[in-house]
Amino acid sequence: MPGRKPKPANLLTLEKGTLYGAQKERVENEPRAERHILPKCPARFTKEERREWRFFASILKNYGLLTIANAPILELLATDMAQYKECAAKVAETGIIIRSPQNFPIYNPYWTAVNKLEEKIHKCLAELGLSSSSLARIGALIVKSSKEKDGYFED
């Protein structure tokens, strides 16, 4: 689909206040998550993955973003974070540069894994709306909408 990604209904409403035309129709037809149906931690997870899943689930719940639709991304995030911590511990133990079997200096394979996992974690956080810039944007929009409702608005 060419063009920009569509924004979620709540974000559009916060930004614009009143919606008209195609945006209003799209927002009215957009499916809403039921807040009482919460995802459960997968049984296949290890102890570390469960710890990460609970940590991120509590953050998402705090911001009202914990929904069943976010469960697959939350699973990826928990798995990636547990692997990241394991690889980072190996790098801390052995160092970034190690010796190959032929005694040549090479980059630690765990170092490459750490860098790739950092990228994946950042993408998952951004997708869930937990990046610092996403939270700041949402917070600014909430403040703006509350000022408009109170009849007080300054630019």
List keywords for this structure.
155 residues; mainly alpha; two-stranded antiparallel sheet; 6 helices; 61% helix
Tell me what the structure shows:
- With 155 residues, the protein is mainly α.
- The protein has a domain at 36-131.
- The chain contains 6 helices and 2 strands, in the order H-H-H-H-E-E-H-H.
- The protein has a two-stranded antiparallel ribbon with strand order 1-2.
- The protein is elongated.
- The two termini are 35 Å apart.
- The model has no long low-confidence stretch (mean pLDDT 82).
Task: Provide a quick synopsis of the model.
With 155 residues, this protein is mainly α. It contains 6 helices and 2 strands, in the order H-H-H-H-E-E-H-H. It is 61% helix and 4% strand.
Order of helices and strands: HHHHEEHH
Strand order of the largest sheet: 1-2
- Give a quick account of the main beta sheet: strands, pairing sense, barrel closure: 2 strands, antiparallel
Q: What oligomeric state do these chains adopt?
A: single chain
